[in-house]
Amino acid sequence: xxxxxxxxxxxxxxxxxTEKIIYLLKNKGFEIKKLNIDKNIKKNNIILSKIIKNKxxxxxxxxxxxxxxxxxxxxxxTKKIKKNNxxxxxxxxxxxxxxxxxxxxxxxxxxxxxxxxxxxxxxNKIKNIIYNNIDIKIPFNRIDCNNILGLARxxxxxxxxxxxxxxxxxxxxxxKKNINILFKNKQKNNYCENxxxxxxKKINLNTKNIPKTIKKRLKIIGIKKKNTLINxxxxxxxxSGQIIxxxxxxxxxxxxxxxxxxxxxxxxxxxxxNYIIxxxxxxIYKNYNIYYKNxxxxxxxxxxxxxxxxxxxxxxxxxKNTFNKKNTIEKFINNxxxxxxxxxxxxxxxxxxxxxxxxIEKIGIKKxxxxxxxxxxxxxxxxxxxxxxxxxxKKIDIIKILKKIGCxxxxxxxxxxxxxxxxxxxxxxxxxxxxxEIIKIYGYNKIPTSSFLTKFKINTKKNHNKINIxxxxxxxxxxxxxxxxxxxxxxxxKENIFFDNKNKKQIxxxxxxxxxxxxxxxxxxxxxxxxxxFNFSRQNYNIKFFEIGTCxxxKKxxxxxxxxxxxxxxxxxxKNHWSIKKxxxFDFFDLKGDLEYILKKQKKIKTLQLxxxxxxxxxxxxxxxxxxxNKKIGIIGMLNKxxxxxxxxxxxxxxxxxxxxxxxxxxxxxxxxxxxxxxxxRDITLIxxxxxxxxxxxxxxxxxxxxxxKKIDIIKIFTNEKLKKIKKKNITIRLTIQDNKKxxxxxxINKLIYKCINxxxxxxxIIFNEPEKNQQNVDTQN
Length: 782
Description:
Radius of gyration: 41 Å
Strand order of the largest sheet: 21-25-26-30-29-28-27
Largest sheet: 7 strands, mixed
Helix content: 25-40%
Number of helices: 20
């Protein structure tokens, strides 16, 4: 719905700015559409152009701006403007002057506009051009705001200003009734309460003059009709929401009017179509701009009758689906008040009288004999409102808000209040709807912020190692591994195949069960490889096993036990299938990836290092020591080919073995506050040398502010032939910025980003592209 600002200010005392109107409607839940600045300004021959260059003076008091207009470049001096990518609005007179101009900053649709001016009248002119026409989307439950009077009523409530409208208008009842009005209520659907009419005689419809204000306002809304009389009727319906019909009085036979409302059935749908019958001549209420030529006034007509029916709430509810149609007056019809009916029928008669002349002779009313529903009485309990809202509002404030809405107070008490809801507020049916309306008018900013305390009892007697081992097992199972459990015993032959006797001292058992179990195991690797051989003999070639168990060592003639974890992969990645012609075999990097995933889940790893390691067990090219924070925790590599051939295994085997104690850290339970404020995401692209490590770049960015920069992710790594020649690469980094105490502004976010950029430039000589404009705000509050 489009409407000009001036139209609403007619009904509100102490006129409001458009910015204030937009602010009030946004907080109430109305959607405001984007303003098309280009169209509004170009019509009035005002320059709108983008800033091409922006140079600051040495004193930093003013800036020299270059703009382009009609393929010509102009230079303008202004007070210091910080934004480069923004627009300037100015006049033709300013372009050739060498003078420092003032500016006024406006942000519309997330873009900054700077209005340059010498005198204030130019500034006010542009503000009126931009903000004069407001375009809003009305919520489906607020049908009463579809007309100008309804919107003005809502804005007056929100702004605490009086509505400049006299409700009580007395209507004259005629003694001589020359017009007979009959209501036919065969069905239960009673849509009309009463009808008021005015007769105007000796009128001249040849004149086509219409006030300019009416023309402009109808153009803004998007309704254009050639007939001036229809335009006046449409103007009043948009303003008031009142149906007004105009007919030729002389063409009515016997001066009888019958009113009938009924349903008409179509093959496809059933639609509610309402009729007025004038001497067996039907006029459809479906579209209020359509009239039959025989009854509607022509140039030759001398007497006119204006009819204004007062509708009930049933008619309003039936017509909900048709409000979204464009270029129809039907969506503006929302009136239940008798005072509005009488006020606007008088207003339209005065407008027609001033334009076309004539005399207003007869004013009358005819009431329909139907049972009209009384206004709803609702009992509101004060404690219920406070429990729904979650904080306390004073009883006096609740009563004031209810009076503003238009509710009549029937009875009061310390505990509850009885209210009568007005006719135009069909959406207020329950206590929840009324509390929603109360908080909207009371103000969301007045909601108090309070922190809550909770008591957590933690059992310290629990064995955390067992819990962590179970979690670790679940991680392996999720990656597709199967757990294996072997005996603690082994034999000399097994140990000699895999390890040297010099490095591994075997621990003999005095009374072994058998020869195969004569020694204690020093490693889990021989047992898990025997499991692979067992599966290969049964034609199972896709193997991923892990084992957690104790191993033993001799130190100073004392036996010491250590818990270790081993994982092994071998064979094909996928199961054999007819669609897979060439199956992939497991390699070293598959196992390394699984290891990194498990270690990251156990503890925050600052540095994971792999160093070369020569051993009889592994291949010399693919064998490394695993270090975390410069401490050895285990080994990883590919099984030696000589051992593989000795065991007659076809596929290469990859193994890692880790000391379990160095992975399982006792986790201290720490409770952190989750921030209520949203995350802000910014992307930065940078060009750097191939040799520079990305970890160093991440650490330098985090060193700027650890509290606000929560996370840094790498999105893209790009190389090109041009970049290869220079020996450089292109990387995009994503920064997630968040504060625990407040929502960050754009200025605060940009400061952090530019600090990161300056640090990286200073350390690594990096080339930057500008940060991306498409930013995201992520709400973290659950």
